[in-house]
Design goal:
Strand content: 5-15%
Number of domains: 3
Number of helices: 9
CATH class of the largest domain: Alpha Beta
Order of helices and strands: HHHHEHEEHEEHHEEH
Bound molecules: adenosine-5'-diphosphate, magnesium ion
Largest sheet: 5 strands, mixed
Strand order of the largest sheet: 2-4-5-7-6
CATH topology of the largest domain: Heat Shock Protein 90
Number of strands: 7
Length: 366
């Protein structure tokens, strides 16, 4: 048991002062008495005073110190994770008892919260495992389908080549070719999503990566009236995997082109440094995204397009997260959409990269 002189002294001091005052009064009142009688009386009074102090100390120890020590022991237990700790003085009918009840209530609430969190965690874990198994299954299936499909694509190409120019089957064969390419595209995207390649993150010029991507994207517009502007700015080297960032920005640009219908399109891509991040914005004046859809656009397989896969944005988000960055979106219907990607400028990104390379070493190869 530790000794706490502070509160004891404070409790005893007023009593001692009263007793001393009593002694002084005693001096005055007993001035007339014989010295030996006075001495005797003084002894008795001092003894009484000591007894009062002792009783007071014992009472204080029992009423205050013991519960406080118990409380500090229980707090220690709680901080070590024992949420079944309870104090025994909670049924006392005073302030100390109320303190005890509050403490017990608080610990019970903490315990309920922890149990609830554990329950949610377990549900999510088993859901994640389930999804991972499904993902593996889908990826395996895609892998199996891809080879025979290439065979079919090759055979149809030969058929198309050998078909007379006037044959009525020509449109059908070309439709088959088109659809086969589409299925191949979906399978490739699905495999990319399910079995990502290891990232190769290293400091490089982000302006160059983005400029290449913009040039690549321009080839997808063909003759549509869309103006794609690129606004670079001098920034320090950014730790990134150029190929992956290219895929990420290309996804955003293709979505932007697809969102522009029946009007002259303007798509702007700019690069800046903001708050220790390299920021890339992709803005379009397309159809915008309804608030209802906005909640879901990063979910795998969410698409509003007849021929969409719904994998572009979820893949993009994963690329951003692998770089330790963030992706945000703002959109107004009929006005346009803005995606803001932020990648860390400093050493943190390289650290993340180390973790990623390390993590990926253990993942299965495609
Ligand atoms: N720039 C944009 N403008 C309007 N809608 C967009 C834009 N980018 C994404 N979206 C919406 O988000 C959905 C999901 O996009 P994505 O994951 O790339 O899949 P997909 O393009 O195959 O539909 C799209 O179907 C579309 O509804
Ligand atoms: Mg897309």
């Amino acid at each position: 048991m530790r000794f706490h002189p502070g509160w004891r002294l404070k409790a005893i001091l007023p009593v001692a002062i009263v007793l001393l005052a009593g002694l002084a009064a005693f001096e005055v009142v007993t001035l007339e008495l014989e010295a030996s009688e006075r001495f005797q009386l003084l002894g008795v009074a001092a003894g009484g005073a000591l007894a009062v102090c002792a009783v007071l100390l014992v009472a204080l120890a029992a009423l205050i110190q013991r519960p406080l020590l118990e409380l500090s022991k229980k707090i220690e237990q709680v901080s070590q994770g024992d949420l079944y700790a309870r104090v025994s003085f909670s049924d006392r009918d005073d302030d100390i008892g109320r303190l005890g009840r509050n403490f017990n209530d608080m610990v019970r609430q903490l315990r309920d919260g922890r149990d609830e969190l554990q329950r949610i965690h377990q549900t999510q874990m088993s859901r994640a495992e389930h999804l991972a198994t499904l993902g593996e299954l889908a990826a395996g299936l895609a892998h199996e389908v891809r080879n025979p499909l290439s065979g079919i694509a090759g055979a149809v190409d030969i058929l198309a080549r050998d078909l007379p120019a006037t044959s009525s089957s020509r449109p059908i064969v070309s439709e088959v070719q088109h659809e086969v390419r589409r299925i191949q595209g979906i399978l490739n995207e699905l495999l990319d999503y399910a079995r990502p390649k290891p990232f190769d993150i290293r400091p490089a010029d982000l302006n160059i990566t983005i400029e290449h991507t913009v040039q690549l994207a321009r080839q997808h517009i063909a003759s549509r009236p869309i103006d794609v502007r690129f606004e670079p700015s001098p920034i320090p080297p950014v730790a990134h995997d150029p190929l992956q960032v290219q895929r990420l920005i290309l996804n955003l640009l293709l979505n932007a082109f697809q969102a522009i219908k029946d009007k002259d399109g303007l798509v702007t891509v700019d690069v800046q440094t903001v708050d220790g991040f390299a920021q890339v914005r992709v803005r379009d004046n397309g159809s915008g995204i309804s608030p209802d859809h906005l909640r879901n656009i990063f979910r795998p397989f969410f698409t509003t397009k007849r021929r969409g896969t719904g994998l572009g944005l979820s893949l993009s988000r994963r690329i951003v997260e692998q770089h330790g960055g963030t992706i945000d979106v703002r959109s107004s219907q009929d006005i346009g959409t803005e995606f803001v990607v932020r990648l860390p400028l400093a050493a943190a990104a390289l650290e993340t990269a180390g973790v990623i390379r390390h993590g990926k070493d253990q993942s299965p190869d495609r």
